[in-house]
Design brief:
Residues 1-12 have a biased composition (Basic residues). This protein has helices at residues 2-15, 22-36, 42-51, 54-161, 164-178, 185-254, 294-306, 309-327, 336-360, 367-391, 395-413, 420-428, 430-450, 462-468, 492-511, 520-545, 549-578, 582-587, 595-617, 636-655, 658-681, 690-708, 716-724, 727-737, 747-753, 759-768, 789-804, and strands at 285-286, 291-292, 458-459, 485-486. By secondary structure, the chain is mainly α.
């Protein structure tokens, strides 16, 4: 309807301006349009006031108002008709409303009469329903309280039984499922207060149990470490026993013995302390080895349940770290030799337990944490070893600690711990150990030599023979002698052999299990030093200061011969203990390491014999150099010498080996030969005849016969060598008795028959040689006779040799 009015207004406005001029019509049109469109009339007002014609604007406004009044009137007329029609309609509806009101009143009366009983029944139902709800709510509350009390009772029972995990599970169930639903505020407040208290109580109890476990585990760690290292030692001993049996089998094979029975021994594979490799969470109970990780894992599990897992991990690690630091303390009141086993066993047990916890602890400790602890432990153990080794001055002490440390390394290597740093410390003190060992052996050898009585050793029982001869392979025959048995050596030989064998075994023991597999060269180097520097020098000192008389010198020479066989055993024994084939050891053998002492002993013996022989050789002064008849039974001096030598040989054959006897007799016979030549060469002999030379020829033949008679004890070759010791005197006598002495000038004949002669001695001795015709007054009867061809040849020889000189 407004749209209609608006439309009518737009049409009326231009028609109202018919009576004025065109300007007024335009103004009227613009003003009507602005009013109809609801625009601002300010510009029209300002314009008329600016032009000084406000009356025009008022006139236009009045004209516009009059035009609208007619329009309003028309509208009101149309609306009035409509209002009349509406009033008529309302009047027609009034009767319908009255009839409806009556009908509603009747319906209400009937409804009230019918709904009254229903409403009373409904009220009773609502009351009964509310009672039912209250009863059900009460039943639910009682049921909830009963369950809650049952959980509380169960939690108390678990607490009293020490089942803290189950108690905590009950508390968690109460807190998560029942606490917010608890109908009793009193009970709820009680639970809210008691649950934290109970959790704190459980934490204190389990912490106390864990603290007790921390105290107990230190003792357990020490016992566990000792047990583990003891098992490693037993395993090593079984390996050593197996090696001994293997060496015995090899020795029997080397000696080509038959009838040997070999059996493969199978050792039970002991599981050791490593346990299973299952990394899952387990209680860690190992009753066999006396340690139980159940308290630890229980505490860890309880703290996990309490939500304190990280705090417990840190607490455990810090306490174990403090325990390990405490284990590093070395008491200054107790010698390290006495406490080292406890020290290392404690550390070994600590890391065996940590390995078990790492594998079965469910993440209680990490591998990096254990590795860091191990690095700290290795660094500390290396520092302690360096310090203690630097103070030690006894080889045996150092060996004992080294053996235990190597067993520690073997034990912990089974659990994956690197032990190279420990083995490097042991290797670094190898030289010091051997120097101390050499020093100890030097003292023992000096004491053993000082106690020697230079008497042949008497063995009354077979075990003595086995202990002193067979154990060092000193026997010359596989046949066991009859007892009592008198050995060719004195007691100092087996004593020294025991010292050297102990040195070898200690050296191999130190070098074994130290990370170096091929150590025979090291053992051999120090064995050479022991024999060449220690034993050889001690024997030289003994020979130069303590040997008195031929019997003692002979005993020392016999001892040296036996020690030469013993040295072969020493190197074989070192090779066997070092685990290398004997052929390799034999290939690397050098000369006899005691050659200085051997040569000195033989030189002393031969020197004493020479001095003894020199006493008999003084009888050579009694020889008649111009005798008329040649001696048929030998001169007096040679008979005395032969008696002495035969007596000497009968004794020497019992103790001296043939080669030693040969070398000594060769030196003595060579000395006798020099004495005979020296007598012919000496100034005391002015001249001699052929009979005297023939007498010396008999003497030398007796000496050569003496050498030939030694053939049962010596080989034919050795007997010939003894005869060759008389070469100078024999060749000199042969030259003087030769019919053609001038053949000495022939190089071929001289090289073959006179190689031992010095031409200067030949000249001097030949000038003293006189034939029987050259004796005093002998020339008168032979004047004018032809000169002896032998004499002529000898003179020619003398002239030629003088010309050469």
């Amino acid at each position: 309807m407004q749209a209609t009015r608006s439309h009518s207004r737009r049409k009326v406005a231009p028609a109202a301006a018919d009576g004025g001029d065109s300007g007024d019509k335009l103004e009227q049109l613009l003003l009507s349009s602005a009013i109809c469109n609801g625009e601002d009339l300010g510009p029209f007002v300002r314009k008329v006031f600016a032009s000084g014609r406000p009356e025009t604007l008022l006139h236009l406004l009045r004209h516009f108002a009059r035009s609208k009044e007619s329009e309003i009137e028309e509208v009101c007329k149309s609306h009035y008709q409509d209002f009349i029609m509406a009033v008529d309609d309302l009047r027609s509806l009034l009767s319908d409303v009255d009839s409806l009101k009556s009908a509603l009143s009747d319906s209400n009366s009937r409804l009230q009469s019918v709904g009254g009983p229903l409403l009373s029944s409904l009220d009773s139902f609502v009351v009964a329903q509310n009672v039912s709800k209250n009863v059900n709510s009460a039943l639910q509350s009682v049921t909830l309280c009963i369950k809650l009390m049952e959980l509380c009772t169960r939690a108390n029972l678990h607490l009293s039984n020490g089942s803290f995990y189950m108690a905590l599970k009950c508390l968690d169930l109460i807190k998560n499922e029942f606490l917010d639903k608890t109908p009793s505020s009193t009970l709820k407040r009680m639970l809210e207060r008691k649950i934290p208290e109970i959790r704190s109580h459980i934490e204190r109890k389990i912490s106390k149990e864990f603290g007790d476990w921390l105290v107990d585990i230190r003792v357990v760690s020490r016992n566990l470490g000792q047990l583990a290292i003891g098992q490693a030692s037993a395993a090593r001993q079984r390996e050593e026993d197996l090696r001994i049996k293997q060496r015995q089998a090899e020795e029997q094979s080397r000696l080509s013995l038959r009838g040997c029975v070999y059996a493969l021994e199978e050792d039970d594979d002991e599981g050791g302390l490593g346990g299973d490799e299952n990394g899952s969470y387990s209680n860690g109970n190992d009753g066999l080895f006396g340690f139980d990780l159940t308290p630890l894992y229980r505490a860890y599990h309880i703290h996990q349940t309490l939500g304190l897992e990280d705090r417990f991990k840190q607490y455990y690690f810090e306490n174990r770290k403090l325990q390990l630091t405490s284990d590093f303390q070395v008491s200054s009141m107790t010698p390290f030799l006495e406490s080292h086993q406890t020290f290392f066993a404690q550390i070994a047990g600590f890391f065996i337990i940590e390995d078990r916890i790492l594998r079965t602890g469910g993440g209680l400790v990490s591998r990096m944490e254990v590795e860091n602890l191990w690095e700290t432990a290795v660094s500390k153990m290396c520092s302690v070893l360096e310090d203690q080794f630097s103070r030690m001055q006894t080889a045996n002490h150092l060996l004992l600690i080294k053996d235990y440390v190597s067993l520690l390394g073997v034990t912990l290597r089974r659990y994956g711990y690197p032990v190279d740093a420990l083995l490097n410390v042991l290797s670094k003190h190898r030289d010091k150990y051997h120097e101390l060992l050499l020093s100890d052996c030097r003292k023992q050898i000096v004491e053993a030599l000082a106690d020697d009585k230079f008497e042949q050793m008497l063995m009354k029982k077979e075990y003595e023979y086995s202990m002193n001869v067979l154990s060092f392979q000193l026997q010359t025959s596989d046949i066991v002698p009859a007892f009592p048995y008198v050995a060719p050596f004195s007691s100092t030989v087996p004593d020294c052999c025991r010292i050297v064998r102990s040195f070898i075994e200690d050296s191999v023991s130190f070098m074994s299990y130290g990370g170096q597999l091929d150590f025979y060269d090291v053992v051999k180097k120090y064995l050479d030093r022991l024999l060449g520097e220690v034993l050889d020098e001690a024997l030289l000192k003994l020979i130069s200061s303590s040997v008195q008389g031929v019997s003692q010198a002979m005993q020392v020479a016999a001892n040296m011969a036996v020690l030469e066989r013993a040295c072969d055993f020493f190197f074989r024994h070192a090779a066997q203990l070092s685990g290398i084939p004997l052929r390799i050891a034999e290939r690397g053998r050098k000369q006899f390491p005691l050659n200085k002492a051997r040569d000195a002993a033989e030189e002393m013996l031969s020197g004493m014999l020479k001095r003894k022989v020199d006493g008999f050789m003084t009888l050579i002064e009694n020889v008649n150099w111009m005798t008329d008849e040649a001696s048929q039974g030998g001169n007096e001096y040679v008979n005395e010498v032969l008696i002495y030598l035969e007596t000497l040989v009968s004794t020497a054959q019992q103790i001296l080996p043939p080669q030693v006897l040969k070398r000594v007799l060769q030196d003595v016979l060579s000395h006798i030969s020099e004495k005979i030549v020296g007598a012919l060469l000496g100034d005391s002999v002015k001249r001699f005849n052929v009979n005297a030379i023939m007498g010396f020829d008999v003497d030398i033949r007796l000496l050569e016969s003496f050498a030939d008679n030694l053939s049962p004890a010596l080989s034919v070759g050795d007997a010939n060598q003894l005869k060759n010791a008389l070469a100078e005197s024999r060749q000199m006598i042969n030259l003087l008795l030769s019919n053609q002495p001038e053949n000495f000038l022939n190089p071929v004949i001289r090289e073959k028959s006179y190689y031992a002669l010095d031409y200067r001695k030949v000249v001097t001795i030949s000038e003293k040689f006189r034939d029987s015709s050259d004796r005093l007054f002998g020339t008168f009867g032979s004047r004018g006779a032809r000169q002896n061809p032998k004499k002529k040849s000898l003179d020619a020889l003398i002239r030629r040799l003088k010309d050469v000189s």
